[in-house]
C-alpha cells in the first residue's frame, strides 16, 4: 500500500489558482475553503446554504453562489459565474453530499395507502450531482492550454458492504465514475487530471450531531482539515492522475495501483485481457 505524506510546501502552488467546489458551507467543504484561501487561492463555493457569518466576510478571493447540485440549472449558473468572475477555472472539488435517506426494507405509503417509491435524494445529490459537476468541469477546463484538475468526493463506504445502502451505493458509483473518467480523459488526450478521495469517518454534517454520536461509541472521527489537505494536494500534484486516495486516522494511502488494480488482475487470472482492453479493441474495429 502506497502511503504518502502531505507537506505544507506541497500545497504552495495553489496560490493564484481558481477553485470551484460544492458543499463549501460546512464540514469538509468549509475546511477546504478555509485552507485554499489561506494558501492564496481564489474560491467559488456552491452550496444550498450560505457560509457561516464568520466565514463570509467580504474578500475579493471568495465568491458564494447558492447552488443545489441536484439542479442542472443551478450548476450551470455556478460555473458560468465562476468563469465570469475570475476568468478561468483551474480546479474543481465535487464535494457536496447528504446523509442516508432511503429505506429499502419498509416502503412508506401515501395518503391513499399506495406504496411510495424509495427516496433517491441522496443519489441525486451525491452521485448524479457529482457527475454533472465533473462534466461541467471538463467542459470549462478542456479548452484551457493548462487544462485543470478534478477531485471527486467518494468515501471508504464505497469499498465495502454498508447498511446505509443509498449512501454506500452512491459512493460505489463515485468510485466507478472517477476511475472511468480518468481513463477516458487519458485516451482522449484531454489535459485534465481526475482523482478520487475515499475518506473514512470524518467530522462533517452528513449525520446530525456526528461528534456527539461518535463520543457515545468511543470513536474519534478524523478532523475535516485532514481530508481538505488531501483534496488540495490532488488539485496541484501533477503526478496524480486516476488515483484513488484512502484517508483514515490522518494518513493518506494511494490504493488504485497497489490494491484495486492488483485485486482485479488476480480475479481475472493471468493471461486474460481486462474488460477495458476488450472494449478498446471493440472501439478500434473499422466502421461498416
TrEMBL record:
Gene3D superfamilies: NAD(P)-binding Rossmann-like Domain. InterPro entries: NAD(P)-bd_dom_sf, SDR_fam. It holds the Pfam family adh_short. Keywords: NADP, Oxidoreductase. This is Short chain dehydrogenase/reductase. One of its GO terms (molecular function) is oxidoreductase activity. Transmembrane segments: none annotated. The keyword Cytoplasm does not apply. Belongs to the short-chain dehydrogenases/reductases (SDR) family. It comes from the Eukaryota.
Amino acid at each position: 500500500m502506497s502511503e504518502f505524506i502531505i507537506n505544507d510546501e506541497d500545497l504552495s502552488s495553489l496560490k493564484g489558482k481558481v477553485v470551484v467546489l460544492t458543499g463549501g458551507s460546512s464540514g469538509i467543504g468549509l475546511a477546504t475553503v478555509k485552507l485554499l484561501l489561506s494558501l492564496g487561492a481564489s474560491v467559488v463555493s456552491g452550496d444550498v446554504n450560505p457560509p457561516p457569518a464568520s466565514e463570509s466576510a467580504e474578500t475579493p478571493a471568495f465568491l458564494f453562489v447558492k447552488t443545489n447540485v441536484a439542479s442542472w440549472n443551478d450548476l450551470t449558473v455556478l460555473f458560468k459565474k465562476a468563469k465570469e468572475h475570475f476568468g478561468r477555472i483551474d480546479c474543481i472539488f465535487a464535494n457536496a453530499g447528504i446523509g442516508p435517506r432511503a429505506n429499502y426494507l419498509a416502503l412508506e405509503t401515501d395518503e391513499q395507502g399506495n406504496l411510495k417509491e424509495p427516496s433517491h435524494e441522496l443519489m441525486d445529490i451525491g452521485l448524479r450531482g457529482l457527475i454533472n459537476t465533473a462534466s461541467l468541469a471538463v467542459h470549462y477546463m478542456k479548452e484551457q492550454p493548462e487544462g485543470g484538475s478534478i477531485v471527486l468526493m467518494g468515501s471508504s463506504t464505497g469499498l465495502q458492504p454498508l447498511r446505509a445502502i443509498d449512501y454506500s451505493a452512491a459512493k460505489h458509483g463515485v468510485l466507478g465514475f472517477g476511475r472511468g473518467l480518468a481513463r477516458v480523459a487519458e485516451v482522449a488526450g484531454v489535459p485534465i487530471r481526475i482523482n478520487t478521495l475515499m475518506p473514512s469517518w470524518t467530522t462533517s454534517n452528513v449525520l446530525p450531531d456526528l461528534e456527539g454520536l461518535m463520543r457515545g461509541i468511543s470513536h474519534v472521527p478524523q478532523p475535516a482539515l485532514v481530508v481538505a489537505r488531501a483534496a488540495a494536494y490532488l488539485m496541484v500534484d501533477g503526478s496524480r492522475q486516476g488515483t484513488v486516495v484512502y484517508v483514515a486516522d490522518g494518513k493518506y494511502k494511494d490504493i488504485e495501483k497497489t490494491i484495486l488494480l492488483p485485486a482485479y488482475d488476480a480475479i481475472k487470472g493471468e493471461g486474460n485481457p481486462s474488460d477495458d482492453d476488450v472494449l478498446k479493441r471493440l472501439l478500434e474495429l473499422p466502421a461498416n
